[in-house]
Design goal:
Number of helices: 3
Strand content: under 5%
Distance between the termini: 61 Å
Structural class: mainly alpha
Shape: elongated
Largest sheet: none
Order of helices and strands: HHH
């Protein structure tokens, strides 16, 4: 049995000036992804096989079980991707606020002496 690949943790270093553009790029991606996921939620599920033959039943069963229903299937992977993008975007908002507070605090402490 093959052991799963374990990647080391990584650090993303971003200049404070680039945070708004990075956050905007993630927002654009989420805006593009959202309608597709909505469409998949509403129209991606096949309620039943389209014909009464065994081939359409097998295809329907595989699609339902492996594509739309499996916890590790493609649809769940897209939902997880969306959740990760939201988490990254929210963290970038927090980082930007932290940078802004630090800059404000530094300016208040040192004033024009910088």
């Amino acid at each position: 049995m093959t052991e799963p690949v374990v990647y080391p943790p990584s650090t993303l270093r971003v200049d404070p000036e680039t945070l708004p553009a990075l956050r905007s790029a993630i927002d654009v991606t989420l805006a593009e992804l959202g309608p597709h996921l909505t469409e998949m939620r509403t129209s991606g599920h096949m309620p039943e096989p389209w014909l009464g033959d065994s081939a359409s039943f097998e295809t329907w069963a595989f699609y339902t079980d492996h594509v739309m229903g499996a916890p590790d299937g493609p649809f769940q992977a897209l939902l997880a991707y969306e959740a990760q993008l939201v988490a990254v975007r929210d963290r970038l908002v927090e980082i930007q606020a932290e940078y802004d507070r630090t800059e404000s605090d530094t300016a208040a402490v040192f004033g024009s002496r910088l």
